[in-house]
Amino acid sequence: MIHVPTAVWAHTVFDLAAWGAGLAFSVLLYRWRLKGLTEQVAGKVGGGYFAALAAGAIPGAWLAGSLNTLQGAHPALSHSVVGALVGAIVGVEIYKAARRITGSTGGVFVGPFALGLVIGRWGCLFAGLPDGTYGAPTALPWAVDLGDGIGRHPVQVYESLAMAVFLAFYLEGLARRRPWAMRRGFYALCIWYGATRFVWEFLKPYPTVVGPFNLFHGLSAGLVAYGWIYAVGSRRRDRAEGRALPVPGPDHEPV
Length: 255
Fold this sequence. Notes:
Elements: E1 2-3, H1 10-45, H2 48-69, H3 81-99, H4 107-127, E2 144-145, E3 151-152, H5 155-175, H6 179-182, H7 185-200, E4 208-210, E5 213-214, H8 215-241
Parallel strand pairs: 1-2
Antiparallel strand pairs: 2-3, 4-5
């Protein structure tokens, strides 16, 4: 069992690091590969896009987190990353439907979101038990002791490493201008994050809703379904429009 030193303020430190790194990373990706895509999306979504995103993400985060923690032994309000993501998707898709906007508009958020989770989940770990994101007890050699002498699954580390794997494949896809990364990266993110998060939820002591499944199982499954359905639809539109596959070309230039 591994003893982990914890402090509540660690969460804030890592959150700030995650936000800062995500912002810087978004600038780098924009200059490297996403300039054309970002300008194309910005030209059609309008100023209300980010308002719709915030209007979905903020209540989604607090609603999902609180619905989970209010069922526990010590009811309290809280927020959730997966709830924020699902809420943002709902808000944006409603806005896009009203404006008759088609196609993926979330590509610019893929890298920053993934990197933010890679960094931010370590803050959840070092914040310890008060953070409420700890794993279920286990006797595995890499179990972590967060201060109560009980070995637990380091689910925060699992999630961080899983998103690091996705980020590596995503960057490789951007480097080679793969269609899934260039045009459907956000849908791929939803599928990967939803599928892995679904697995990690079995390793958390959260209250269940139906059978062995908690609230976040449902949200995670929804992300997978959304990503898959929209990715398939995007590929069909590409084929119907006869869109050519991207080929190597100078940076920043659409090909």
